[in-house]
Amino acid sequence: MTALLDVRDFSVAFGASQPVKGVSFTANPGEMLAIVGESGSGKSLTALGLIGLLPRHAKTGGEIRFDGRNLLGQSERDWRKIRGRDIGMIFQEPMTSLNPVLTVGEQITEVLRIHEHVDRKQARQRAVELLELVNIPEARKRVDDYPHQLSGGMRQRVMIAIGVACNPKLLIADEATTALDVTIQAQILQLLDNLRRDLNMAVILITHDLGIVAQWADRVMVMYAGRKVEEGLPEPVFTNPYHPYTRGLLGASPRAESGHHYRQGPLIEIPGSIVSATGEKGCAFRPRCPSAQASCGFAVPPLRQITEDRLAACPFTPTSFVSHVHDASLRS
Amino acid sequence: MTLLSVRNLSTHYAGGRGTVRAVDDVSLTIEPGETVALVGESGCGKSSLGKSLMRLVEPTSGQVEFKGKDVTAMPARELRSLRRSIQMIFQDPFASLNPRQTIRTILTAPLKVHGVGDSKRRREIIESIIVQVGLPADSLDRYPHEFSGGQRQRIGIARALILQPELVVCDEPVSALDLSIQAQILNLLVEMKNKLSLSYLFVSHDLSVVRYFSDRVLVMYLGKIVESAPTAELWADPKHPYTRALLAAVPDPSRRKQAAPIAGDLPSPHNPPSGCRFHTRCPLATDLCRAQAPEHRLFGPAHAVACHHTN
């Protein structure tokens, strides 16, 4: 199967600084891919690149192959045909992404009328259906509401309705649940999960929340300082992380299910901050890495195939790493 | 002696659309050395409660006692000296640091206000605290914008601790920080707590952080505390349907793709539901719940629940 989205060596530069340094990944129809990383990891710029919304002065490199053709370098006119139709996007703050002076219905029909040949009446009917699809109660009434009349969770549902209005093949959700309360967040993630199955739509979930990734994603890629440092299936990545940064992230996050308490001992810190990666030769994580060697400073470690479905950009095997491929062969 | 004791505290805001009962008849205690977490969703009144304790927002009724002294009745001058003992750490340290002042000026201000030491002594105190919170000593003559988010939160912590308070109200202190920085700040807060024998009131919406960081948890919903229990007990045996829903909503790798636990949104605090405020979203709600607000009942030495149906 050819991937729906095939990103090859994608980079973003602003003058001399290069916040995204050659990232490659794929997404398949119906798949939920999570991209995790801290601020400065390049995850949001990567997302903006996928829908052609990078600032004009950004210099991009590599390829973004979508449905077989390279999107990078195409004209703004061509982008407009794809954005909203083939690729939808939802952002973190629905209030700033929704137009306050247009009703919810007007904002949904706008997308439909641009991309699909529908008249006003059909578009309105479709808007009501979309609001029902995203579980907004009394959709027929709500369609005439303005964004400020809705709660945060409802606004995010409207954003999703706009995002999926034209049955896109790919939906990008950039920290789409971060600003929401935890009970609402669970509802929205459940909704995204249902939609991607029903519409056979690939979803790229950009988040810093490892719990969300573990519970909802099919595959996860971890980014650090503009590069992919690890990729794999969520369960093995989180129970058996390979890259020292992934291990660090997991050690640093208090996880309720572990029952770990402050009176038993501190959280394992990753010392320093991502700023230390600027201008680093070799591995960008080296200044913060507990197992760094002199050789880590010579060159950027390439991604290695660790197991059948695991990639990691570290030449050293962690002492506790158990290969799942090896495991499987023992069992059979 | 109980450090902080709050009885029947209410804080109401009068506004264009009517009165918002942000905090409604809330009682709680904090013992010396204890970390008490206040959890709930946005709009539940947890920040208002935190501010009401120090009278940064004037409570409408009820009583706050700090070490036996009635805070609610205190004249302004006494209140100022009380604020030396109760300090606050905010979510966004950048918004609470004056951008035109050096860190030295920012840290000197509380010492001057409370007449601590002479200028030489003050300099010693500042130089000692900046190192204790993990910043280089040369940070003092720099400005807030020169620091990263995590470093700014360290400055906020230094400012809160410089007067050696007994109680620190932490309002979402790590929610704006990246994961790796969050761990650094939580560890620092624990370290300072042990060093200075502090008590914390930890206001947070992040249940994973609360599970790690607190000794006791108060769960708030629309201005009311619906359940309070020691942390481990709350996770082992949550009793209120809202607490259960809240805990079930925390993403958990071992529970892949389960249906969203509770439907519906938080009702508007302008017009809270009658009776038990959770009844509009509660799977157990009956006519009793719609008619009558449940009282707190004890289900263990320190486990109180306000629900008609808990038994």
Summarize the structure.
The complex is a heterodimer of chains A (332) and B (311). Chain A has 332 residues and is of the alpha/beta class.
Helix amount of chain B: 25-40%
Main β-sheet of chain A: number of strands, strand sense, barrel status?
Answer: 8 strands, mixed
| CATH homologous superfamily annotation of chain B | P-loop containing nucleotide triphosphate hydrolases
At CATH level 2, the architecture of the largest domain in chain A is 3-Layer(aba) Sandwich
On the 0 to 100 scale, the average pLDDT of chain A is 89
Q: How many strands of chain A?
A: 12
DSSP strand (E) fraction of chain B? 15-25%
The secondary structure category of chain B is: alpha/beta
Order of helices and strands of chain B: EEEHEEHEHHHEHEHEEHHHEE
Q: Which runs of chain B of at least 5 residues are low in confidence (pLDDT < 50)?
A: none
- Helix tally of chain B equals 10
Please identify the structural class of chain A as seen in this structure: alpha/beta
Major sheet characteristics of chain B: 8 strands, mixed
Gap between N and C termini of chain B: 32 Å
Low-confidence spans of chain A: 325-332
Q: Most extensive chain contact?
A: A-B, 51 and 47 residues
Task: Describe the global form of chain A.
Answer: globular
Strand order of the largest sheet of chain B: 6-7-8-3-9-10-12-11
How much helicity do the residues of chain A have?
25-40%
- Enumerate how many helices of chain A there are, as a single number: 12
Overview of this structure, please?
The complex is a heterodimer of chains A (332) and B (311). Chain A has 332 residues and is of the alpha/beta class. Chain A has two domains: 5-217, P-loop containing nucleotide triphosphate hydrolases (Rossmann fold, 3-Layer(aba) Sandwich); 243-256 and 267-331, no CATH class. Chain A contains twelve helices and twelve strands. Chain A has an eight-stranded mixed sheet with strand order 6-7-8-3-9-10-12-11, with helices on both faces. Chain A has a four-stranded antiparallel sheet with strand order 2-1-4-5, with helices on one face. Chain A is globular, with a radius of gyration of 21 Å. The relative contact order of chain A is 0.13. Chain B has a single domain (4-101, 169-181, 199-305), classed as 3-Layer(aba) Sandwich (Rossmann fold), CATH 3.40.50.300. In chain B, 32% of the residues lie in helices and 23% in strands. Chain B has ten helices and twelve strands. In chain B, helix 5 packs parallel to helix 6 (179-196). The longest helix of chain B has 18 residues, at 179-196. At the A-B interface, helix 7, helix 8, helix 9, helix 10 and helix 11 of A face helix 6, helix 7, helix 8 and helix 9 of B.
